[in-house]
Amino acid sequence: DQQVKQNSPSLSVQEGRISILNCDYTNSMFDYFLWYKKYPAEGPTFLISISSIKDKNEDGRFTVFLNKSAKHLSLHIVPSQPGDSAVYFCAASALGDMRFGAGTRLTVKP
Amino acid sequence: NAGVTQTPKFRILKIGQSMTLQCTQDMNHNYMYWYRQDPGMGLKLIYYSVGAGITDKGEVPNGYNVSRSTTEDFPLRLELAAPSQTSVYFCASSYSRAEPEAFFGQGTRLTVV
């Protein structure tokens, strides 16, 4: 069962514009949600997280929004930079059980 | 401070062989994980551990075994390797439930022929 879903395999945006990556989940027990960035031949690196008691968390150019009623979270990157081009995974955690979505490949064009 | 170290980086196995993927972390993290990533796919949780002596199955545990005798080490054992286990394996660790941000190793690329 796919408990964490990223329905957009790819996203292309222009440098300086906003990138919005989306993620949906099905398990109401998840209490932390995270975004990771991954380059080829490397392990994922942590980007930003949000607990289930919050609806927004901001860190520089990155903001994560959580809508618990819709079981939906999104990652906003503003402004987007070419160096942000990578695969982004959302993840959700409950008592140590951390599940990942399939990933969205973001391409930021100069 | 090495973080999460996985060995080996690459391995080719013949069908039916066994091997252990090693993972060690030096951050005193309580939680450790094993994931596999098939080409073009996301990460699938194989097993995880919330502390020494405690392990739990994830999404795709069949064909694998784990142990957690120390906080630092979380080896993954493949018995009777099959072509379907060809994948990139990632080990990760995080501090606690309240700090679930995970740090990943560089991965082990395994091919079963």
Question: Would you write up a description of this structure?
Answer:
The complex is a heterodimer of chains A (110) and B (113). Chain A has strands at residues 4-5, 10-14, 19-25, 32-38, 45-51, 56-59, 62-67, 72-77, 86-94, 97-100, 104-109. Chain A has 110 residues and is mainly β. The radius of gyration of chain A is 13 Å and the shape is globular. The N and C termini of chain A lie far apart (38 Å). Chain B has 113 residues and is an all-beta fold. Chain B is built from no helices and eleven strands. Chain B has strands spanning 4-7, 10-13, 19-25, 31-37, 43-51, 54-57, 64-66, 76-78, 87-94, 103-104, 108-112. In chain B, strands 2, 4, 5, 6, 9, 10 and 11 form a seven-stranded mixed β-sheet that branches. In chain B, strands 1-3-8-7 form a four-stranded antiparallel β-sheet, with no helix packed on it. In chain B, β4 (31-37) and β5 (43-51) form a beta hairpin. Chain B is globular. Chains A and B meet through β4, β5, β9 and β10 of A and β4, β5, β9 and β10 of B.
Any key phrases for this structure?
heterodimer, A: 110 residues, mainly beta, six-stranded mixed beta sheet, B: 113 residues, seven-stranded mixed beta sheet, four-stranded antiparallel beta sheet, globular
Summarize the structure.
The complex is a heterodimer of chains A (110) and B (113). Chain A has 110 residues and is mainly β.
Global geometry of chain A: globular
Number of helices of chain A: 0
Major sheet description of chain A? 6 strands, mixed
Q: How many β-strand runs of chain A?
A: 11
Query: What is the CA-CA span between the terminal residues of chain B?
Result: 36 Å
Percentage of residues in strands of chain B: over 45%
Summing up helix and strand content along with how strands pair, one would put the structural category of chain A as mainly beta
